[in-house]
Amino acid sequence: MADNNQMLLYAAAYDTVDAALADMVAVEQLHKDEMIGKYDAAVIDQQDGKPHIVKRMDRSRMRAIPEMFGGGTLPRKELKEAAGVLTANQAGLIVAGEPTIEKGLDRAITGAAKVVKRSVDATTDEISSELQEALKS
């Protein structure tokens, strides 16, 4: 069933790492309050010209964002647009999850200079694999 593969991908660009971390805390609180479903999230900045994970969410229920986050061209249009947002500013927040995250994230992501939201027809493993391949150094 196609609905089982439906995921939402959010990428938000921030002027500071602290602003991205604050929104990540808000997203984590929504999950603790059981207002959003399964998701994976990470705050990313630049180190030596390459994207680098500053902080991952603790104990995610899914793994969509690869541990190693480097530069490269993303194979999916949606992921390429998300990566473009993340490299535009000093820091970024990327969140991938079930469609149930949409309403909560629209309220939680408040400090971003720009947000890109895309619906992606793929499994968690497919997203993780594609991000890993596309973003390795």
N- to C-terminal distance: 34 Å
The quaternary organization reads as single chain
CATH domain class name: Alpha Beta
Helix tally equals 4
By CATH, the topology is Aldehyde Oxidoreductase, domain 3
Helix content: 25-40%
How would you portray this structure in words?
This protein is of the alpha+beta class and 137 residues long. It has one domain (2-135): Aldehyde Oxidoreductase, domain 3 (Alpha-Beta Complex), CATH 3.90.1170. It is built from 4 helices and 5 strands; from the N terminus they run E-H-E-E-H-E-H-E-H. The protein has helices spanning 17-32, 77-88, 102-108, 124-135, and strands at residues 6-14, 39-47, 50-56, 91-97, 114-121. A 5-stranded antiparallel beta sheet has the order 3-2-4-1-5, sandwiched between helices. A hairpin with a 2-residue loop joins strand 2 (39-47) and strand 3 (50-56). The longest helix has 16 residues, at 17-32. 35% of the residues are buried. Mean pLDDT is 73; it is low at 68-75. This is DUF1269 domain-containing protein. It comes from Trebonia kvetii.
Key attributes of the depicted protein:
Aldehyde Oxidoreductase, domain 3, 29% strand, alpha+beta, 34% helix, 137 residues, DUF1269 domain-containing protein, 4 helices, five-stranded antiparallel sheet
